Amino acid sequence: MTKLSVSNAVPTSVPGPGSAPASESTPASGPVPGPESVSLAGADSANADAQRPGTPDVRPPRAIRLVALLGSTRRGSLNGALLGAARVLSPAGVAIEAFPIERLPFYDADLDARDATPEVRALRAAIAASDGLLVVTPEYNHSLPAVVKNAIDWASRPPAAAPLAGRPVLLMGATAGRSAVKYALGHAHEILGFLGARAFERRLGIPLAGQLVDAAGDLSDPALRAELAALLADFSAWVRASGVADDPGRLEVAA
Ligand SMILES: Cc1cc2nc3c(=O)[nH]c(=O)nc-3n(C[C@H](O)[C@H](O)[C@H](O)COP(=O)(O)O)c2cc1C
What we know:
The chain is α/β, with parallel strands linked by helices.
């Protein structure tokens, strides 16, 4: 079986992630989500009931909402298959929504000064309302594809209120080649760390991923699916343990 690469990396040290809810699942090719679409209907209803004094807190944990940035726009993308599997294998109470980053314009400071575009505003709102990011990307020429870097650049502004600051991030990627995406994931880790996001110490890089999908294009390899499910469970537990999901107001935007 293909050897997977689950690497350890030094986590960034920005304390205290936290955020408000993100969004309902929509396909990467679906409509650009607006701020109004980034809430999970009913997901917080149990938590909306305040605990009565003197009674044990039996409320279920609040749902975790992750915004996914998918670094490939092509049909039959291996990374698209990886994201699809992640959405299926994420633990109960965790929702993953792919934001259609291919619809963003290229970063332009003049455009940004004019309030950017609805797509850019939707990206910033979706990230700001999320509990974390999931970056699922191929490697292009030993780095990130431009579409991912462009989304990160938009999300890094304005500097005083960048929605990436303090946000937990899980990095993963697949390639048809043998390299395990280590440069792309490494660069993503470095960039996001610079921006104050908190990258999970484990990443998943999948070499020879073409051998791990079935005829329908689904990521079907049992060992990989188990690895992915475990990683998502551990990341979700880390996000929850950090207090993000229980205290949306805890995240402070870096000045
Ligand atoms: C412009 C370009 C550069 C690439 N550079 C790398 C690379 O540096 N390392 C690597 O492992 N694969 C590289 N690849 C191969 C892609 O990672 C591979 O095609 C991958 O399957 C693309 O992801 P996708 O299937 O999700 O579209 C490159 C592909 C393209 C188109």
